[in-house]
Design goal:
Layout lengths: L1 H23 L9 H13 L3 H14 L4 H13 L3 H14 L4 H13 L3 H11 L5 H18 L2 H14 L4 H14 L2 H14 L4 H13 L3 H14 L4 H13 L3 H12 L2 H4 L1
Length: 274
């Protein structure tokens, strides 16, 4: 059934492309609806034919001037071709039509960053956060963290990731990233408090235990660090970086035999041998 469906999809897009080519050349007056234009744009975008994708977006926007989805696709292609000011004009218009589309804010952020206007990007995203929740709010927080990274506001990156984990404590991307930024910013106490809260709710989160251990290690609380690493590897015995860090903590404690044992598990990890 899937093969038949895939074949039908290919035939449908081929027919849509043919209709679009005739329409563009003035050889047809057949009507293409809004969804068809979206499929045509996506097709050309997927095969990296930006020129034809943009032509389809422009023709679609002419026929459906109040379609925020087509205008957003057009703006996205404008950004891809570095026509930033034109893209911004389109996005300003889209905001009047539909201010609830998260892509509007993501693309405006891209434009501001391309124009070296990081402060405008920050203001835009901070205001947008007040109007979104759930997965969309998480996406905006990740976007804001990237802007702060570009702007070298490193403590605020930590704050964004903290907000993400307060909303979604098992978000793996945020858990991986906050470990790095904890070390980079020295926010070990904040990280300990955050991850202890996460562990209370999700005691089998090996990443939360690892991050807690790393924060203890950052404060030179090596015994607490080792205890937390032990929980991480008890949950996931293949967690090789936990063994590596545990070995380092044992060395700091001058427990060299334990350090060797932990580091042997790190070097003999199946993941490292792949």
């Amino acid at each position: 059934m899937k093969e038949n469906s895939s074949h039908q999809d290919k035939e449908d897009i081929k027919e849509l492309i043919k209709q679009f080519q005739h329409l563009r050349a003035g050889r047809s007056h057949r009507f293409l609806d809004e969804e068809s234009f979206e499929k045509i744009i996506d097709y050309f975008d997927d095969i990296e034919d930006v020129t034809q994708a943009l032509e389809a977006a422009e023709l679609g926007a002419e026929q459906f001037p109040y379609s925020s989805s087509l205008l957003i696709k057009k703006a996205d292609l404008m950004i891809a071709t570095r026509r930033y000011h034109e893209a911004l004009e389109i996005l300003e218009h889209v905001e009047l039509l539909d201010s609830n589309d998260i892509n509007l804010y993501i693309l405006k952020t891209d434009v501001y960053l391309a124009l070296d206007q990081q402060e405008k990007a920050v203001v835009l995203l901070e205001n947008a956060l007040q109007h979104f929740d759930g997965e969309e709010r998480l996406e905006l927080l990740f976007e804001l963290a990237d802007v702060y990274d570009d702007y070298e506001e490193f403590d605020k990156i930590f704050d964004c990731l903290k907000l993400i984990l307060e909303q979604d404590p098992t978000n793996e991307e945020a858990l991986y990233k906050i470990c790095f930024w904890t070390d980079f910013t020295g926010r070990n106490e904040d990280s300990i408090a955050l991850h202890q809260q996460i562990i209370e709710e999700y005691p089998y989160s090996e990443l939360a235990w690892f991050n807690l251990a790393a924060a203890f290690q950052g404060l030179k609380l090596y015994e607490k660090s080792v205890d937390a690493y032990k929980y991480a590897v008890a949950i996931d015995e293949k967690f090789d970086y936990a063994y590596r860090n545990m070995g380092d903590a044992y060395i700091r404690m001058r427990k060299y035999r334990d350090a060797v044992e932990a580091l042997e598990k790190y070097w003999n990890s199946p993941v490292r041998k792949m």
